[in-house]
Design a protein that fits this description.
- 31% of the residues lie in helices and 25% in strands.
- By secondary structure, it is α/β, with parallel strands linked by helices.
- The protein has three domains: 216 residues, FAD/NAD(P)-binding domain; 110 residues, FAD/NAD(P)-binding domain (3-Layer(bba) Sandwich); 113 residues, FAD/NAD-linked reductase, C-terminal dimerisation domain (Enolase-like, domain 1).
- The structure holds nicotinamide-adenine-dinucleotide.
- Nicotinamide-adenine-dinucleotide (NAD) binds next to helix 6, strand 12, strand 14 and strand 20.
Length: 469
């Protein structure tokens, strides 16, 4: 047993776990964070958000150099792809950030414990060292589960890490695939499909639903589909993948099309991106009495406490959207509530972003949700093509759509398809957090020339007062 009894042991060092550990330490708690991997930061920093954004940026520049630089009057001559350097830059960003978390732990006095954490009870966590298998026992007052998620498998499609892979391997292909088949046109499928398409691969996406990007506002996801199609990505929607078979250096994917007949498509790599599931393997949660629901998620109350007093859970492992920024907020709120600070998360104001080009960003209700709930709403739309900054950036595709209550004018949702949508959405998230009306956004002075003016114009358009169209 450890010499000290910690106030809190956090299991998992992803954005949920490491942020919770730091905030708990700021609040004066003695904290240990157990991580099975040698690198801190979880999926997001190591094999998720951060490395994918690095490759998205590099591939975007490559594509712009090929297709757009000449419109700026820039002639680059013989442009070449140095994939090894591109991958090295990505790895270096990951390394800087994961080491950064280690530094933050040191600075805040969070004790890092390397090894596999298993919950014995709300007051004891056993850790098996990754280096030598030795077992140590941590004594604690509370346990916080922040173990995240892992890739959902797909029946009939066996991952081999070479030809049939997950997003982890698709971040490291050493050569550009000739034909990448992506199963699932959700966020991961679109982001990694974009990377390899821009670098020269033929990319085909097979999607079960009749549209891309899951529950995204239908008009917005249709705009994204059209744009990505124009960029060269091929979509087969409403199809069900039945199997994938490796034949030498090819993979044959069999799917059932809309006609109900089995068809095949073959490529040299297959990326399986059909969602993620909560990761509780070997955690000992169920054995310690923690209830898991039918899909393996851990239900929690408003304190993020499980059914076992003293055992808490946050992030991808609990029901709700799997988003790094939501996990962070849950971590902060969970440990603040442990300390008597009665804060909560406004689940209506959580942004979601797909980092395609242009980006897709949303917050709040979609038109479909409002219609289903019978809420009377007004909408305002403004296109980027009527914005000076967007023209200067050569990024005029897309629009901002704001939805507001027809009676109170309170902002209910915003859906952006356009340049830097992931940054622009922040303004509307803040507005919704403050209970703002669309008139509040319309009356707020926005810097000129800026992409933010499109948000303001969309708010003006709600009332038929857009000025620049
Ligand atoms: P997702 O749920 O976003 O998309 C999976 C897609 O696969 C869905 O559209 C689904 O209909 C489809 N699908 C499922 N089974 C299928 C089948 N048999 N054949 C064809 N299509 C099928 O999941 P994801 O893209 O794997 O991402 C996993 C999680 O990670 C998500 O919760 C996502 O929000 C999160 N994530 C977020 C970001 C971001 O915020 N930018 C980036 C990457 C991942």
């Amino acid at each position: 047993m450890s010499d000290i009894t910690y106030d809190l042991v956090v299991i998992g060092s992803g954005p949920g776990g490491y942020i919770a550990a730091i905030r708990a330490a700021q609040l004066g708690m003695s904290v240990a964070c157990v991580e099975k991997d040698s690198s801190l930061g979880g999926t997001c920093l190591n094999v998720g958000c951060i490395p994918s954004k690095a490759l998205l940026e590099s591939s975007e520049l490559y594509s712009a150099a090929q297709k757009e630089f000449k419109r700026h009057g820039l002639l680059v001559g013989d442009l070449k792809l140095d994939l090894a350097t591109m991958l090295k830059r990505k790895d270096s960003i990951v390394s800087q950030l994961t080491k950064g978390v280690a530094g933050l732990f040191k600075k805040n006095g969070v004790v890092r414990v390397e090894g596999w954490g298993r919950i014995v009870s709300a007051t004891e966590v056993e850790v098996r060292s990754a280096a030598n298998g030795a077992l140590t026992s941590l004594s604690t007052k509370r346990v916080l589960i922040a173990t995240g998620s892992s890739v959902s498998p797909l029946r009939g499609v066996e991952l081999d890490g070479q030809r049939i892979v997950t997003s982890t391997e698709a971040l490291c292909f050493e050569t550009v695939p000739e034909h990448l088949i992506v199963i699932g046109a959700g966020v991961i499928g679109l982001e990694l499909g974009s990377v390899w398409a821009r670098l020269g691969a033929k990319v085909t996406l097979l999607e079960y639903l009749p549209h891309i990007l899951g529950n995204t506002d239908a008009e917005t996801s249709a705009l994204a589909l059209k744009s990505l199609g124009r960029q060269g990505m091929q979509f087969m929607l409403g199809v069900k993948v039945l199997s994938a078979t490796v034949l030498d250096d090819k993979v044959v994917v069999t799917y059932e099309g809309t006609s109900g007949v089995a068809e095949t498509v073959s490529g040299d790599r297959v990326l399986v991106a059909v969602g993620r599931r909560p990761y509780t393997q070997g955690l000992g949660a169920a054995e310690a009495g923690v209830t898991l629901d039918a899909r393996g998620f851990i239900p929690v109350d408003h304190d993020y406490q499980t059914n076992v007093p003293g055992i808490y859970a946050i992030g991808d492992v609990i029901p709700g959207p799997m988003l790094a920024h939501l996990a962070e907020d849950e971590g902060v709120v969970c440990v603040e509530r442990m300390n008597g600070i009665k804060v909560h998360i406004n689940t209506d104001a959580i942004p979601a972003v797909a980092y395609t080009w242009p980006e897709v960003a949303s917050v709040g209700a979609t038109e479909e949700e409002l219609a289903k709930r019978g809420v009377a709403y007004k909408k305002g739309i403004f296109p980027f093509v009527a914005n000076g900054r967007a023209k200067a950036l050569l990024a005029t595709e897309g629009q901002v759509k704001i939805l507001a209550d027809a009676v109170t004018d309170r902002v209910l949702g915003c859906h952006i398809f356009g340049p830097r949508a992931g940054d622009l959405i922040g303004e509307v998230v803040m507005a919704m957090e403050m209970g703002a009306s669309s008139e509040d956004i319309a009356r707020t002075c926005h810097a000129h020339p800026g992409l933010g003016e499109v948000v303001r114009e969309a708010a003006l358009a709600l009332d038929g007062r857009a000025l620049n169209i």
